[in-house]
Amino acid sequence: MKRESFREGHKAGAETVSCHLEKLASLDLLPDHGFEVICLPIKVARGSAGCCRPVALLAE
Questions:
Q1: What is the pLDDT of residues 16-48, one digit of tens each?
Q2: Mean pLDDT: which of 3-7, 12-16, 39-43, 47-51 is highest?
Q3: Cβ(36)–Cβ(49) under 8 Å?
Q4: Residue 31 CB contacts under 8 Å (≥ 6 apart), including other chains
Q5: φ and ψ at 40, to 5 degrees?
Q6: How far apart are CA 52 and CA 42, in angstroms?
């Protein structure tokens, strides 16, 4: 893969605010509806990006 095409993939959607989540576990334990997701950032020293800790809040 050429580096130019690799970089283009990172620019996709840059015109709008977007979030990409991957490698999530235990999604089968969540209900079909009635929950919210909060993504808690994990700070990376001197990084321009980083990972997050996604948390599901279940409705009572």
A1: 777 778 889 999 999 999 999 999 988 888 877
A2: 39-43
A3: no
A4: 58
A5: -90, 120
A6: 5
Distance, in Å, from the CA atom of 2 to the CA atom of 10, rounded to the nearest integer, reads: 13
Q: What is the rounded distance in angstroms from the CA atom of residue 54 to the CA atom of residue 21?
A: 9
Pull the structure tokens for residue 22.
């991957």
CA dist 37 and 30 (Å) reads 11
Better-predicted residue by pLDDT, 4 or 53: 53
- Which residue's structure tokens are 């997701």? 37
Q: Provide the residue count of the chain.
A: 60
Nearest to 19 by CA among 44, 49, 45, 42: 49
Tell me how many degrees the CA angle 52-55-60 measures, rounded to the nearest 5: 165
